[in-house]
């Protein structure tokens, strides 16, 4: 039965409205506003109080789509309470709009579900805090552009002046100001008398009204207003609010707007349009190529930091110089280098070592990652990217304290980033297969789903001051005031949208970065979502291009698939995300190129790898040669330094010859064989150890040559024996100095053995990937929701159950704990055990938190009462000294 049929059933408060909901409706509220159960409220009254707090309401408003937000804004300027017909008139106007009429029930249902609106269709009430946030005031203009009502604006006027306005407007005088303002408001709301009044207005006065009708509604006048303003002031079409300031009353503006609260309503989300359509096979192949490049880039980055990467800044993060060096090493721009560094960090492959001289290096997880198949390695990177709250696009910008944000440094977390990434990919998944989106339409859709802050608090697509910053309302009011008495049209942008650059909201910037990063990572190919990218987010199969797939969006309304008003898909649980990542890896694996076991050696001391190499071959070739160019085929160059590097790693000349012969499809060129033999002949001829350091050589002529060389002066060499030189420098510096002079010394241990320098030397201790910064409390799962609802209902039962008076008195007031003496408490509980009655107690826990509970005592002994607690739905034991009092429940 509706509230119209049964007025007594109409809720008198939000708590009563929540009390009338079923469990499914309460679960939807707590799922949409998880901050309401952190911690779990004791009863529905506390839940309603928490739902009306400013912080919670602001958060709920931020998660509304544009049309639902416009509905809430219309309710804020409607009578309180309002009927559904009044709300529909404000949204659809006097002429009506079928699309608005079709979409309004859904928007109103969302507001009810989120506990922002309560009451039946005959008495709709916006939560008081939401009304305070959205209602117009001089300090905080409404996004509707409306001003105060006649009653609000005329509250400070003298009774005589109000009666003068009535007489000039052709209305009979009244006995008080309240009835006079009511009569004036009735005139402005009358669809017949108001047009007749405006027909009498001079054209200049009508022009003033047209300038103020869509807001801002405030203007300034002089002590002697111009005739066109005097005509309006005398009839109450403009009312003074402060000395020299006038306002267009809300009733006048609505009549001039044909009843609309908004200039433009958007009941249907804008479609995401396709900019281009490619063959799905081409999209997958392109994305697979990008995925392979992503794996190679991350490997190259961490190989470059094998022996310890850049130092960690004192404030954390990479220095600008180190980021530039990394970009040069990867042959990418600096912003792209920041993305790869942050991606490796988010995946747990890169971290700081935690030493006193802290540096970045690969983690042990990197070695495990290298052993996995290519598809699984990519899935790990892509999954980490999806969930990361760190935002590489912010690197190089300034924070609130004017400090530069650095890669791997603090201040890069944006909790909304994972949600935006998922939503962007979900919108791509709604396009036909192989379709790349039009970026503008994609951003417009995101702005519709989550309007920028300017639209929520004082500006929007329907407002002429959409781009005004929060610090500007007063200036905007003065500017509008100047136009009241002057000439010219307002110069505000008509679209009210966010532009690029500094004016663009964070969600739009995150969306742009998502599109770019998804392409680099291989989630998309040529801008379209790939099949493995679709599997990564758990999206259903793509609609085929040209399919006429439609579903009703409202009465008599059909929309294409990508135009539907569908809510964002729920976030995947960790188990579901792992399953989706495994499916994506299986789809990607066949598309990646097979590793090769050979190279092509050339006479110019280069080797060409015509594709990706098997890991042992790539690792060995990376030690033996330097990468000269990358691309579809990688070119390696052999140099004396690279060959010496392989010899330092413990390989002999025979090993190198055998390796090249085994892995080359072409004969080993003679120049390369000569190079290896020549370097090996001189390698280890000199031995360097610690004295501070020393050099020993069986050929004293070589030592004589070193002593005679001027470049050896800085090494502090002196002869200890015909075959031994001592040096003041440490062994590492002595090695570098001799190599710079053209020699090929080898380091040796204290026992005289040659030290082997391996390429994979340094790893950090085990590290866990950075935890994403949550965007508020996590969404509760079904188990937690069921337990929370059961506890809230039990607590509500305890707080609302009728109670007998305590000790013959009136009993405790609602919300107060019962108060009885210790003897009365003990006697009442013992009697309840004998009669199996349920009683109501007040209880104070060890932390001092007071609560009220409904219990069924089972036994009382040893200073404790054991009872079934209806509030917690379990058997509990309570110390008697912590029970403030007890009362019997009424029949």
From TrEMBL:
Residues 485-501 have a biased composition (Gly residues). Residues 470-484 have a biased composition (Low complexity). One of its GO terms (molecular function) is helicase activity. Residues 599-721 form the Helicase XPB/Ssl2 N-terminal domain. Keywords: ATP-binding, Helicase, Hydrolase, Nucleotide-binding. Residues 825-886 form the WYL domain. InterPro entries: WYL_dom, XPB/Ssl2_N. It comes from the Bacteria. Residues 453-505, 532-574 are annotated as: Disordered. This is Helicase C-terminal domain-containing protein. It comes from Streptomyces werraensis.
